[in-house]
Amino acid sequence: MNGAIARTGVLRALGAMSGTSLDGVDAAVVETDGITISAFGPSGYRAYLPEERAILRAGLGRWQGAEVELAGDVVDVAHFEALRRFEGIDLVGFHGQTLAHDPRGHGTLQVGDGAALAEALGLPVVWDFRSQDVRMGGEGAPLAPFFHFACAKWMGATAPLAFLNLGGVGNLTWIDPSQPAPEVPGALLAFDTGPANAPVNDLMSARLGLEMDAGGALAAQGTVAEGMLEEFLAARFFARMPPKSLDRNDFAFASKLVEPLGDADAAATLTAMSAAAVARGMEHCPQPPARVLVTGGGRRNPVLMRMLAAGLDCPVEPVEAAGLDGDMLEAQAFAYLAVRVARGLPTSCPGTTGVRAAVGGGIVSVPGA
Ligand SMILES: Nc1ncnc2c1ncn2[C@@H]1O[C@H](COP(=O)(O)OP(=O)(O)OP(=O)(O)O)[C@@H](O)[C@H]1O
Ligand SMILES: CC(=O)N[C@H]1[C@@H]2OC[C@@H](O2)[C@@H](O)[C@@H]1O[C@H](C)C(=O)O
């Protein structure tokens, strides 16, 4: 199907996400009518080349100018390459790359041209998912929670549970799966918890020229500086009632705090900060979840996972324990959300972004329009 999007029935949607860690483009297929997940399909990954990553990095925190234009070009090319391999697709959900996020001020900026991608792929593309939520007073993030709700239904969950995404930034979705729909008050509470991997990645890059603390190996050798951890937890952000969202570098002060420490102690302390931020966030949830399902790259860090489990009163497991794919959950989320946008269904609500009322977002670009 190239033109119009069917108004009813199950669609085969291809979602694409380029996250805050700037590693690459995740792409994944979901079959859904916008409410129920019928099936998960194939997935793929297109890594950014080092020079592309440098261009994206130069665009971070900017709202306009040559750096933003160049970053947009990188995003467009990488997504075309990531997405053109898929077949039998009805529509695409294209998140783009967040360069800057300031919902109370400038707004939110995801670069990538959905209209151009629609022409290049010959498929309808849903994009610019966050702006409408911000215009309606919301944080514009996180948006995965409506998908998490559908996943909880897909799993057959009956007790409240939480999804925790540990990317550059952490975000938590608390779900009452007994509710009939995600926008029903009390069904969802979602918010960014604090920094997750970004500060440790930045430390590894600045001090050792490495991308990450693989396996938490460096953190495992260090000792947590408890005083610094307390100072970190005193930040106003943690006391703020959710919903709330963060820009990748909003916690730059945490990186500054650990500057006097040796490499291992700094890595241990930054890792402990990410875990402690989640535990603090959990205090805002209406009731303790029966389990926490962890998605995103942070689930591969056993030190972070151990620290999380120590701070929470329930099982903390990778989403694979529930039959989901933790590398692709965000790409799948934007596939699912694309169908919701195409069908006029909401993608956020007061419990997920603080928006005034449940709202859909996104632009639908159809090739040849
Ligand atoms: N084996 C590993 N050991 C330790 N950390 C890891 C490992 N694998 C991935 N990570 C961490 O996870 C990060 C990537 O996570 P992910 O792909 O979920 O981020 P993202 O999707 O870009 O971010 P966001 O969800 O914030 O947009 C890496 O940069 C690294 O910090
Ligand atoms: C503004 C923005 O791009 N935020 C991302 C980022 O990465 C994780 C966290 O911060 C979350 O708020 C969001 O992404 C996920 C996919 C979301 O919207 O649910």
Describe the structure.
- By secondary structure, this protein is α/β, with parallel strands linked by helices.
- The protein has 2 domains: 11-141 and 341-365, Nucleotidyltransferase, domain 5 (2-Layer Sandwich); 145-322, 2-Layer Sandwich (Nucleotidyltransferase, domain 5).
- It is built from 14 helices and 12 strands.
- Strand 7 (161-166) and strand 8 form a beta hairpin.
- Helix 6 (198-208) runs antiparallel to helix 11 (263-282) and helix 8 runs parallel beside helix 11.
- The longest helix has 20 residues, at 263-282.
- It starts with 10 loop residues before the first strand and ends with a strand.
- Adenosine-5'-triphosphate binds next to loops.
Features:
369 residues; Nucleotidyltransferase, domain 5; 2 domains; 7-stranded mixed β-sheet; binds adenosine-5'-triphosphate; binds ligand AH0; Anhydro_N_Ac-Mur_kinase; carbohydrate metabolism; ATP-binding; ATP binding
